[in-house]
Amino acid sequence: MKNMRVPHTSLLVFSAIFILSGCGYMFAPKYSDPIYTERAPLLSLRYEYQDLHIYAPVQLVNTMPEAYQVYIFDKDNEVDALFAATYMPEEKIEVYLPQNTLSTDKNGNIFVISPQGRDMPDIKKIFTGKRYGDITLPVTKIVKTPAVVEGSVFRRYDDRTLGGIQLVATDSTGRKFYTKSRLDGDYRFELPNEYGYRNDVVVSAGVGSLFP
């Protein structure tokens, strides 16, 4: 018995395969969002960051503030502080800022220490900044505002002012402070702060002349 051959069978099979594969290509799925794999990244980026460290040493002179208010300003803007913080007396005053915070202009920054307590004035220091690194400011002395006694020295009989006259301020315990009158006759004592709340100081000019 002879096998019967169907003409063009191979051509039909080939055409069917081509059509199926073509349809598969034409109707491939589309994804609106990217599909991520769990592969490790091929690229990495490292950013080296440096900061500013400002150290402001403080020396207390016969006083003890309750606290310090610390501010840093740009010299051209003393309204909006670049930095503001409160420090206790036992703490070191150290400030850390991001790099490029300060002006690098000569004397372009202002450091303010405001001691909290009676008769202690604010202290301002002007300094030059840098992009990053360490800055150490000069020592800040915290001293209470002195009690000021001032006046003029003149001759009693003709009211002529006298310069270069030795003066002494004496309290009720016998403690003495000395100064001299200026050429125009004016004098000025800067006494310890507590004398601003006392009334027992007598100023003597020359020999035997008393000015209460």
Q: If you had to describe this structure to a student in words, what would you say it looks like?
A:
The protein has one helix and 15 strands. It has 212 residues and is mainly beta. The protein has two domains: 93 residues, Immunoglobulin-like (Sandwich), CATH 2.60.40; 65 residues, Immunoglobulin-like (Sandwich). The strands form five sheets. A four-stranded antiparallel sheet has the order 4-3-6-7, with no helix packed on it. The chain has a four-stranded antiparallel sheet with strand order 12-11-14-15, with no helix packed on it. It has a three-stranded mixed sheet with strand order 5-1-8, with no helix packed on it. 12% of the residues are buried.
* Main beta-sheet annotation: 4 strands, antiparallel
Overall number of domains:
2
The averaged pLDDT comes out at 81
Helix proportion range? under 10%
Attribute tags:
2 domains; single chain; 212 residues; 15 strands; 4-stranded antiparallel β-sheet; 8% helix; Immunoglobulin-like; mainly beta
What layout of secondary structure does this protein have?
Elements: H1 9-26, E1 51-55, E2 58-61, E3 67-74, E4 83-87, E5 94-98, E6 109-116, E7 123-127, E8 133-136, E9 140-143, E10 147-152, E11 166-170, E12 176-180, E13 186-191, E14 202-205, E15 210-211
Parallel strand pairs: 1-8, 2-9
Antiparallel strand pairs: 1-5, 3-4, 3-6, 6-7, 10-13, 11-12, 11-14, 14-15
